[in-house]
Every structure is written in C-alpha cells, then in structure tokens.
Specification:
Number of domains: 2
Oligomer: single chain
CATH superfamily of the largest domain: Vaccinia Virus protein VP39
CATH topology of the largest domain: Rossmann fold
Strand content: 15-25%
Number of helices: 6
CATH class of the largest domain: Alpha Beta
Strand order of the largest sheet: 6-5-4-7-8-10-9
Distance between the termini: 39 Å
Number of strands: 10
Largest sheet: 7 strands, mixed
Shape: globular
Length: 227
C-alpha cells in the first residue's frame, strides 16, 4: 500500500542523481505493516533506461530504496520477539533503509545506532524514521562507523541483515564477534553457512519489496547468532 505524501526533497534529489525520473513512494511493508518506508516506485523497473543511467545504477546502487528480504524478516522477528531489543543498546550494521533500526525503536530499544557508509542510506534512515514518527527521537543515532563502539560495554547486540550478498564481506562475521558481545545475522544468500562461532537459530520466508522477482531460494531467510 502506498501513501500520497511526497518524499523529502533531499532524499529524492540524492536518488535522482542516479535515476533522474524515478519516484520514491511511502510504502507499507507486507511482513511488517506497522512500518512504512520510502521505496522506489516499481514502475521504474519496466521503464527503458539509457546506457548512462544503467552505468550509474551499477556504479552507485541505491540499495536503500528497496526493503530486502532479510531486513524485512529481521524487523518482523524483532516486533514479534520484543525482548530481543527492549531496553537494550543495538547496532544496526549496514542499515540501508533503516527497517531494522525502526523496528528496534518500535520494540522499545534503549538506543539504536543505525550505521552505514552510503550517503543515500543515511538520508534514507533519517527520512524513514520521520515517516514512522521517530523524527525527534534521541534514541536513534545515525552514524557511518559503528566500529568506533567496539568493545563498548554499553552495546548489547549488533544486528546485520543482508550484508553477506557479497562473500567478500565474510570477514565481518569474525569482526562482529571480536567487537561486540552478541551478533544476530539474517541472510538469504549464503548456502551451507557453517561459520565458526555462529549457530543457526531460525528460518523465515520473506520477499524483497518492491518484488524483484527473485528465485524462490532467495526468499528463505536464515538467522544465525554468535556463540
């Protein structure tokens, strides 16, 4: 379901640096209908794009303009099992749209650090927080480098959804364990996950939104936690 309100100008301007004619829609999510996000209008996927635009999309993909399956599944888990985050300090690594951070705020987290290196993602989190009523909530801290919090006794858990789409990110798994007391991973890409220091704890079905028509195997989200 889409809302008729307009996307924040700074977020839309940033988005249109890559996709000049694209729109962002306030979109209610199927798995977590209490959350809405500014997501790409799916009509753009049927449009004919110039070679320059396609190159720009590959050069600087706006990952944050989709709600990826693992992020949506982790948000749903948080809202169903609020004890995971209630009164705790959470790091949302690679926050993207901010779906996990927003769910954690809704579930009563004490502080949520929404961390991402992408400028568009940082704008997206700010806009999506406002869309869900957290514009002036001082529990939300938007930052680029969550590892500045490494070994901080105040951080209870780092959550990371959809960070293993590129297996070159695998070293992050050990880094999370070294830097934070507890880690929760949600992933729909890696098969035969058998990483030291982690155990499988749950499986959920979810779909990236807007739907990219991905293979069925990418609609199964696996959860792993550090030992």
């Amino acid at each position: 379901m889409h809302s008729a309100i307009s996307a924040p100008k700074d977020l839309l301007q940033h988005f249109r640096q890559t996709l000049p004619h694209a729109e962002l829609l306030a979109t209610q999510l199927p798995d977590v209908p209490t959350v809405s996000l500014w997501l790409v209008n799916p009509a753009i996927m049927d449009a004919r794009l110039s070679e320059e635009t396609i190159a720009a999309v590959f050069e600087e993909p706006a990952y944050w303009s989709f709600c990826w399956a693992s992020g949506q599944a982790m948000a749903a888990m948080i809202l169903e099992q609020t004890d995971l985050v209630r009164d705790k300090v959470i790091v949302d690594f690679g926050t993207g749209s901010g779906i996990v951070a927003i769910a954690a705020l809704m579930a009563g987290a004490k502080t949520v650090y929404a961390s991402d290196l992408d400028e568009g993602a940082l704008l997206s989190v700010q806009a999506n927080a406002a869309l869900n009523g957290f514009a002036d909530d001082d529990r939300l801290v938007i930052c680029r480098d969550c590892f500045s919090l490494a070994n901080s006794e105040s951080v209870d858990m780092v959550m990371a959804a959809d960070v293993l789409y590129d297996w070159e990110n695998k070293p992050l798994l050990e880094k999370f364990r070294q830097c934070f007391k507890k880690t929760l991973i949600a992933d729909s890409r890696v098969r035969n996950f058998n990483e030291p220091g982690y155990e499988a704890i749950a499986v959920r079905r979810s779909v990236t939104f807007p739907d990219l028509g991905e293979f069925e195997e990418f609609k199964t989200v696996n959860f792993y936690q550090s030992l």
